[in-house]
Amino acid sequence: MKRCFMLVTAGLVLALALSSCARKAEEMTGAAAAKAGATAQAGAFTPLSFDNYGRIVTVRARPERVLALGPNCAETLAALGLADYIVGTSLRNHSRGPLPEYAEVFKKIPELNHSSATREAVISSGADFIYGIDWEFGSDGLDVDELAGYGITVYMDAAQTLEQTYQEISDMGAIFGVEDRAAAFIADQKARIAAVQQKIAGKAPVKVLVYDSGNDGVFTCSGANFETLLINDAGGKNVFDDLNEKAWITVSYEEVLKRAPDFIIIHDYDSPSVEAKIAEIRANDTLSQLEAVKNSRFVIIELESVLPGDRLAYTIEKLARGLHPDIAF
What we know:
By secondary structure, the protein is of the alpha/beta class. It folds into two domains: 48-158, Nitrogenase molybdenum iron protein domain (Rossmann fold), CATH 3.40.50; 201-323, Nitrogenase molybdenum iron protein domain (Rossmann fold). Helix content is 44%, strand content 18%. It is built from twelve helices and 13 strands. α6 runs antiparallel to α7 and α7 runs parallel beside α12. 35% of the residues are buried. Residues 1-42 have low confidence and may be disordered.
C-alpha cells in the first residue's frame, strides 16, 4: 500500500510539473506570437503617396518623431489626438496659445525654436517627419531636398481653400492611422460653418480691413490670402480682395480711407500688442477719419486662427460674432 501511494504521489507531481511546463510554454508562445503580431503590424504599413501642392510626398513608414512647424500645424495634430508624436514646434511667437481643449497636451510639447525653425535645430532633432506651414521652407527657410537626405519627410501646409485644408487633415489621418477621427473632425467643422452660414443668410457682407501692422502704410491680406475666405464665410468682404498678386501686401493709408471699411480686423500676436496697434491707428491722421475707428469697430483675432488648420469653424464663428453683433451665434 505504501509503495502504491508513493507511486501515485510521484505520478501526480510529475503530471503537475508537466502541466506547469506546458502552461509556461504556452504563455511564452503566446507572448512571442503577440510580439510577432505587433512587429508584423508595425511592418505592414503600406507606403502612401500624396500630391502635396505639386510635390509628391511618399510616406514609407508611420512617423514616430514629428516636428509641427507652425502653431496651426501643431494644433491640427493635437485635434487628431496625435500630440504625443510631436517632438518640437516653431513659430510660437505667432501664437496666443492653444485653444482651451488642447492646453494640457501643449504643456508637454517641446519648443524647437520660438520663431522660425533653424536648419541646425531641425537636423539635430531626430525627427523623421515634418508637418509645417509653407513659410518655413524655401529660399529663406528649410531645404526640403536636404531634409530628405537626413531621413526627414516633409508634408507642407499650404492650403488656400477650405477643401484643401480638409484634405490635409484627411491626409494626416491616413498617415497616422486615425482616418475615422479625421473624418469626424472634418464633419464637425463643416456642420459648424454651415450653422454660421444659415444665420447670416440674407445679410449684406460688411466691408473689412485686415490690419496686421502699420508703418509706411497698412500691411494687410489680399484676395489671394486664406484669411479672405474666412472673412467671406463670416459675412464680411475684404476691401482689398481685388489685389491678388501676393498673399500679403502693403497699401497706403489714403487707399484705405477711400475704400472705407466698416470694420477693422486686428491680428493678435506677440509684438506689437493689440493695444499698441489700436493706439497707432487712432493716432494716424488718415486712419482716424474712418467711421470704423471713430466707432471703435475693431474685431480682434489671433494670427494663428486665420491660418489653415483646425480652427476653421472657430475663426468663422468668432469673426461672424464681431462683424454681425446683432445676430446671436
